[in-house]
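Hi everyone, sorry if this is the wrong subforum. Our group has a chain we'd like a structural model of before ordering constructs, and none of us has done structure prediction before. Sequence below.
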Amino acid sequence: MKKAQWVLASGMVLLLSGCSSASRIAPWNWFGSTVTITEQGVGKLTANTPLTEAAIAEGLNNDYRLIGGMRIVSGQPVTYYEALKEDKTALLIRGEDGKVSHIEVMDSDIETDSGVKIGTLFSKLYSKAYGACRPGEELDVRSVECSAPGSEHLNYQFSGDWRGPQGLIPPDDVLSDWAIRKIIWHR
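Answer:
Right subforum, don't worry. Here is the predicted structure as tokens:
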């Protein structure tokens, strides 16, 4: 009987501490993602992370399904990885010179180390757009992108209702009800 208990206990230890495919069922992962956005990056993804599927998967705790591809940004082809959660884009990772350089976070379960996340209202972070915000560009032309207070590497992209012309920032009273739809980390 003692031998059977030892085998069972050894198996549990191996399972709970073990390989990446079993790590999702470990008790420390039961209550959600530990991926956080900081000045250094997103999760374990930093400016030093190679722009490879294996490195990105590991940097995101293997919590997402990755799809790689190419897209045009500012007229230049760039390699990117899309991190999918329940078949929806949760993160978009781009790079330069073979390293991660730009991460767009759309997963509402990931927040900054100061508690800002998708859905946070403009009025919780800013009293006015002047000096912090600019109109969105390219695919995000109907949004407003603002530098995170006190940050050199984080931007918040807000969206909401406004019928004004493209390329202009809505008035502050309109922006106050807009919510973050993307958190962007860049080198």
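For your construct planning: Residues 70 and 79 are 5 Å apart (CA to CA). The longest strand covers residues 76-85.
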